[in-house]
Amino acid sequence: MTEALPVAVSFDAFTSIGFWTSVGIIAGTFTIFTLGLQLNVGFTGIFNFGQAGFMAIGAYSMAIFVTDTGLSFWVAMPLAILVTMAFALVVGLPSLRLRADYLAISTIAFSEAVRLTALNARDLTGGAQGIFGFTDAWESVSDTIEGWLVSLGWSDPERLFPLFIVVWVVALLLTFVLSRAQRTPWGRVLRAVREDEDAARALGKNAFSYKIQSLVIAAGLGAIAGFFLALNLSFIVPDEFAPTFTFLGYSMLVLGGLANYWGVAIGALIFEVILEGLRFVELPISDVKIAALRFVILGLALILLMAFRPQGMFGKKEEMVLGE
Fold first, then answer.
1. Do the domain assignments include residue 3?
2. Which residues contact 11 (CB under 8 A, 6 or more apart)?
3. Quick check: is 2 in a domain?
C-alpha cells in the first residue's frame, strides 16, 4: 500500500492585511491588463496575444523617459502611453489584415521580440539588470496617501496600501468608462464587427479601422498596467513580460466571462486569491513541484469551469459565438 502524503493548510495569511494588499495590487494590475484583452476578444473578435509586449513598451518607455531624459514622472506616463499606442498602430496595420490565427501568431512574435530586445539592448534598458530609480515622484504621492490613512486612524498602514488604493481606483474607473463606451454607437459597431464583419462593411462601416482602434486602446491599457507593475516591483526587468503574462490574462478573462468588463475584475481577484492562497498548502515535496502544482490546480479549475459553465462566471452563452 502507498502511504498517503501529509497535507497541511494554513489560513493565517488570509487574516493578514499584507496578504490582501499584495494580492489586490496584482489583481488590480491584471484587471487593467485584461480589460484590453476583453475589448479585443470579447467585443471586437480579434485575438491579441501580444499584450505583454505592449505592457513592456509602456513600462520601459516611462522608466527611460524618467531616468535617461529627466522628464517628470507625470509627463513620462502619458508620453509612454502614446509611444505604446504608436507601436500598436505599427503592429496592427499589417497584422489586422491577416486571418485570426495569423494575427495571434504575429502578436505573440511581436511580444517576444520586445522582451528579447529589452534583454539585449543593455545601454537603453539595462538588460537583465533592468531599470531602477524612476519611483521618486510616486513615493512622494504614496507618503501623502499614507499620511491621510494615519489621520483617519490607521497608525501603521501597509507600505504598499497607497498603491493598492490607486490601482483599484484606476481599474474601476477604466472598467466604468469602457462599459459606458460599449453602449455608444462606437461600441455597437465593435460588436457588429465581431459578430459579422462582412455585414458591418455592407452597412458602410470601416471594420479595419475599428479593429485598429480596439488594438490601440488595448495597448494603452497594457501600458497603464505596466506602470503599476513597475511601481509594485520598484524596478523593470525583461523576465516580467514573458508571454505567460498574456496567457494568465486570458485565464482571468475566461474565468470572469466573455464580453463582460466587470467580470474581468472578479475573475482577476478570484484567480489571484486562489493562486496566492495555494502557497500556504504544505506538502512533503520540493518548492519547485509545489509551484507547478498550484498551476495544475488552477488548470483543473478552469477545465471544470469550461465543462460546466463555458461562458465563465458572468458571461452569456450567446457571447461565445464569434463571427458565426
1. no
2. 280
3. no
pLDDT in the model for residue 11: 63
Give, as one character, the DSSP assignment of residue 3.
P
Q: If DSSP states are collapsed to H, E and C, what string results for 251-282?
A: HHHHHHCCCCHHHHHHHHHHHHHHHHHHHHEE
In a domain, 104, yes or no: yes
Give the domain extent around 167. Answer: 8-320
Instruction: Give how far Cα 84 sits from Cα of 6, 53, 218, 284, Å.
Output: 49, 9, 10, 45
pLDDT at 1 (0 to 100): 45
d(Cα 62, Cα 64) in Å, to the nearest integer? Answer: 6
Q: Taking the complete model, does pTM exceed 0.90, yes or no?
A: yes
Query: In the chain, how many domains are there?
Result: 1
Which residues face 131 on adjacent strands? 236
Give me the pLDDT at residue 278, please.
78
Residues near 152 by Cβ (< 8 Å), separated by ≥ 6? none
Here the CATH number for the domain that contains residue 211 is 1.10.3470
Angle at 201 between CA 199 and CA 206, to 5 degrees: 145
Banded pLDDT at 100 (limits 50, 70, 90)? confident
Tell me the per-residue pLDDT of 253-308, one tens digit each, with 9 for 90 and over.
Answer: 999 999 999 999 999 999 999 888 877 777 677 777 777 788 888 888 888 888 88
CB 196: neighbour CB atoms within 10 A?
15
In a domain, 103, yes or no: yes
Burial class for 295, CB neighbours closer than 10 Å (0-12, 13-18, 19+): middle
- Whether 2 has a pLDDT exceeding 60, the answer reads no
Report whether pLDDT(8) > 90.
no
